[in-house]
């Protein structure tokens, strides 16, 4: 029996045929466009947004008395983030200041002693001059009595008495010289002691500077403009020096994309090439950037356990090389990109002459 098609069947068949044709056309256009994109550009979806994310580290230990920030808060360079109890450090600073004052007072006492010893030395010098004069006079008298004794005008007893007086004067002169030398030696010793005290004062002042630094470390400030990340501390918590307290994203530096291209794609990439990319979070927004550097090794070479192909289980795998792309554009546009976002990068294979010769040569190592 011959099947008869109604008008409705024919209409459905026609609509289905048009839909199938339209689908095939759309797929053909999409396929041609995809193939064309792969032909004219090197693409990769193995790429992430990077930016400097630095930890906020305490340089002093103690109890936290106040936390002045919240997670995701925008901060300016110099803004106070945390306050640590400074009393222990201020006490150490006061002790060092008191020690400096004590040593400075000791130095003043030594300076006064030097002045007093100088007066004593001058008095001893005068005594040496007087003893020398007496010795000179006694020597003349002794010589005179020697002549008188030889002429029998004086007795031997008188000569011996003059000899004894001369010996006493000579001893007194030697004693005066020794006293003067001792006074000068005491001055030299005191000057040396002053040098020791000055060195101690310098050491204490350096220690005071260190204590002042410790006091300043109890106030933790933002190192640059940025946005605070995860917060791991609360007021009343005990922390140690070197402990990570928070994270801050640096807004003063550029953002960049690390695109892990296959090694077979690198021949078409050059320094200075313009790259375009879209983020998974903003698929309809096209971002732009510039290739600024190539990694000196593949990504696997920097892993904790790099592959060792000499073990006998070698399987050839296409390696990927990180390519650094600086993101360009307005700050408001850059703020859309967050650290760690996945992006799809595309770099046109044929570039204008600006990315040839001299640009590549600028990054080649010099030979000695």
**CATH fold field value of the largest domain:** Helix Hairpins
Give the % helix.
40-55%
Question: What is the number of E strands?
Answer: 15
Estimate what percentage of residues fall within beta strands: 15-25%
How would you sum up the major sheet? 7 strands, antiparallel
Q: How many independent structural domains?
A: 3
Terminal CA distance reads: 94 Å
Q: Which CATH class of the largest domain?
A: Mainly Alpha
Shape: rod-shaped
Please, could you describe this protein's structure?
This protein is α+β, with helices and mostly antiparallel strands. It has helices at 7-40, 87-150, 156-217, 331-334, 358-361, and strands at residues 41-44, 47-50, 53-57, 62-67, 74-75, 80-84, 219-221, 226-231, 238-239, 244-250, 256-262, 274-279, 282-294, 320-328, 343-348. It is built from 5 helices and 15 strands. A 7-stranded antiparallel sheet has the order 1-15-12-13-14-11-2. The chain has a 4-stranded antiparallel sheet with strand order 3-10-8-5, with no helix packed on it. A hairpin with a 2-residue loop joins strand 12 and strand 13. Helix 2 (87-150) packs antiparallel against helix 3. The longest helix has 64 residues, at 87-150. Mean pLDDT is 83; it is low at 351-368. Residues 56-249 form the Multidrug resistance protein MdtA-like barrel-sandwich hybrid domain. Its main location: membrane.
